[in-house]
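Sequence in, structure out.
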Amino acid sequence: MSLTRTPSRPALHPLHAILLAFPIALFTGAVLSDVTYLNSAEMQWSNFSAWLITFALVFGGPVVLWALIDLIRAGNRGPARLYLVLVAVMWVLGLVNAFKHSQDAWSSVGAPGLILSILCAALALVAGWIAYSPVTAVEAAR
């Protein structure tokens, strides 16, 4: 008896994959920008973070919508449900983070702003890991 792996679901639609790449890169860039601001106190780094977070939300909105449509079409499977929860929480925390970063510079990027940025980046990376990894079912071949 040998084991073979067969794909159990199709890969991401190419447009969905492209859209998901933006929040991953932009939220990660916002973390780096926040850390740089905290080390330099140069106001422009705080602005960069706010812009990165805003554009991550712009591209993350269609990702959440696409994940919801995929979940409805797929019939409420476990990985699709987990992926939707991750991108939805990522987007909501990103929105809270955008509001936090719209405050005055030092209060926007302090500990709460940095923690929100780290959470958004981590959720985006985990969602990307789930979305880009091939899901396979191990079947016994005769």
